[in-house]
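User: Can you predict the 3D structure for this chain?
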Amino acid sequence: MFAEVDGRRVHYRVTGTGPPVVLLHGLGRSLEDWEPLRAALPGYRLLAIDLAGFGHSHPLPEPRLDSLAGHVMRTLDALDVTRAVHVVGNSLGGAVAMRLAADNPDRVASLALANSAGFGRRVTWALRVLDLPLLWRLLLRPDERTARSTELSLFYDPAFATPERVALAHELSQRPEAARTLRRVAAGLGSIRGVHPGWRRDLLMAMARLGIPTLVAWGTHDRILPAGHLINAAAALPQAHTHLFSRTGHMPQIERAEQFAALLTRFWDGLEAGPPPATAK
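Assistant: Here is the predicted structure, written as C-alpha cells:
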C-alpha cells in the first residue's frame, strides 16, 4: 500500500489487529525484511514502513536521521495512528526509532532495537569506504554478484541469503536515487573512520533522560555492527533489557524470527503487567 506524505509516496504494509507496532528496516533495505517476524507475531497491528528513499518510498531532499524520523512520524499521522506505538528498529531503523522517540516521547510506548546503529564506532568496511569520492559509485553500482555478497554478509547461516532475497536486493538497488540516498544517509552517520561520535552521544543522552522502556538485542556474529556494541548499549541505557542471540548475524528478525517474536512478546507483556508490587517490610 502507498500513502502520500509531504507530497512524497510512502510504501507501507499493515497486518493484524491489536496494539500497534511500527517496524523500521536498515540502511539500503526495505519492509520485506520484517516478513518472517510478522508471521510470528499474531495479536498485534503491525505497520512496516519503507523509510524515505529506500524500498519503494520516495526520497527526501535532505535524508538525515532527524528528517527520516520526522517523516516516519508524519506517516503515522497520515495513517491516523495517533496512540503511542511500540517501535522495532533494525540497524539504521534502530537509530531512526531512537530519534523518533527522543523527538516524540509521548508517541512511543517502547523501543526494541535489533543490532541497532548508535551504540559504537565500529562498522563494516563496506560502509566506511562509501566516504571515499568516486569509489562509492563503483561499490553501489547495481550488480547481482554484489547483491549476493551483501545478503551473505547479513547472516550467520548462508542459507538465509536466498535467491529471492538476492533478487529483491538487486531490484531495489536499480531504483532511481537508491545509491545516492544510501550514500548520503551513510555519510551523515559516519566516515572512513567509523560511525560519528557526536550524533551517537547526543541521541543516547536523550534516550537515557527519557527512560522509555527499551529492549536491545544483537546477534553474536554480526559482521556489520559487531556484537560488542551490545555492551555499549547496556552501559548507555542501564535500564534497558538486553539479549544476545547465538550464531546469528545482523538480522535476528529473519534468522531468529520465532525466538525474537517470543522475546518481544515477553517484553511487551511485561510492560502491560507493570512493575511488581512493593514488598511490605
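Residues 140 and 179 are 6 Å apart (CA to CA). The longest strand covers residues 8-15.
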